[in-house]
Write a structure and sequence with these properties.
134 residues, mainly alpha, elongated
């Protein structure tokens, strides 16, 4: 005869509870005296070893470490500022052409008009001096 798994699981759970109940019953009565405390063993303090003139880093080593840290922080700050200036938004003033650029453009236009005027004058002179056809 074989029992189904659910029945076996139920029997295992009941068996576990039956074993655990006597152990837990001692905790249910609040009027039982507490278990005797174990006397702590006295530990004799062990004296710390006396360092033999070993203070860690020398003063110059500490100074080098602090200077290196300062240089590192300064380098990071410079990199941040340079990057921020490079990537800053463009203002309207920067988008407009500068006065120097406007002056250059006007100068180029004036030179172009002057050159065209000379060319026109020269063409008219050539036309005037052509031999007449008969």
């Amino acid at each position: 005869m074989t029992l189904p798994r659910s029945v076996l699981a139920l029997l295992a759970a009941l068996l576990t509870l039956a074993v655990a109940v006597p152990a837990a019953s001692g905790q249910s009565n609040p009027f039982t005296p507490p278990a005797p405390l174990v006397a702590p063993e006295e530990v004799t303090p062990v004296p710390a070893p006396v360092p033999e003139d070993d203070d860690g880093l020398e003063t110059w080593q500490q100074a080098l470490i602090f200077l290196g840290g300062f240089a590192l922080l300064a380098g990071i700050a410079v990199a941040i500022v340079v990057d921020a200036r490079r990537r800053r938004p463009v203002t309207e003033e920067e988008l407009r052409p500068s006065r120097a650029a406007q002056g250059d453009a006007e100068h180029r236009r004036a030179e172009h008009r002057k050159r065209k005027g000379k060319q026109k004058t020269q063409r008219a002179a050539r036309k005037k001096n052509r031999p007449k056809r008969k």
